[in-house]
Amino acid sequence: EAQVTQNPRYLITVTGKKLTVTCSQNMNHEYMSWYRQDPGLGLRQIYYSMNVEVTDKGDVPEGYKVSRKEKRNFPLILESPSPNQTSLYFCASSRDRFLVALHFGNGTRLTVT
Amino acid sequence: DQQVKQNSPSLSVQEGRISILNCDYTNSMFDYFLWYKKYPAEGPTFLISISSIKDKNEDGRFTVFLNKSAKHLSLHIVPSQPGDSAVYFCAASEREGETSGSRLTFGEGTQLTVNP
Lengths: 113, 116
What we know:
The complex is a heterodimer of chains A (113) and B (116).
Chain A: E1 4-7, E2 10-13, E3 19-25, E4 31-38, E5 42-51, E6 54-57, E7 65-66, E8 76-78, E9 87-94, E10 103-104, E11 108-112
Parallel strand pairs in A: 2-11
Antiparallel strand pairs in A: 1-3, 3-8, 4-5, 4-9, 5-6, 7-8, 9-10, 9-11
Chain B: E1 4-5, E2 10-14, E3 19-25, E4 32-38, E5 45-51, E6 56-59, E7 62-67, E8 72-77, E9 86-93, E10 104-106, E11 110-115
Parallel strand pairs in B: 2-11
Antiparallel strand pairs in B: 1-3, 3-8, 4-5, 4-9, 6-7, 7-8, 9-10, 9-11
């Protein structure tokens, strides 16, 4: 089954404790991206990657890092999480950069206390 | 600066009637528009899209209309079904230009409730 898999689904952590949210897709997609969803703000793009070793900032990249060492994986790293990063996070992938249709994971609910 | 806006946070309709969800955008460089549907505890799923060279695209019960001069698009669902109850996100992309795709700007979302 074609899918984007994120782990964990739920995460509660404390301020400053480094964490990684993993994302993997099995569709051989070139393009991958991370979004956060907040009430009243919709989905905002954090980072995206057009291919292996190619990443770029989205609209809200501050406080986040990503890497794309393999085509299928695109982890999101919070080096020093803060409470304003409490959000619902989605990873997505697409066949190409023209984003005809993004495939989304089921989300990771992160709470930073 | 919200470049894609969905001004109605919620919409309630009766089963069998038409649902109309609206979306406005400010960036005149956007040339590709999409609608996504999201159920609770799931990621958004692609519903329908339209290129700026068209003013209408239809897929079964779903039709998207684009009015470029007004920078407005709408999603029509006819007839509405209880299973359509979800959050609907409008999104826009600039497929020609410096970033050539790669970035999708979403609206805030509209919660549609279809009552039996």
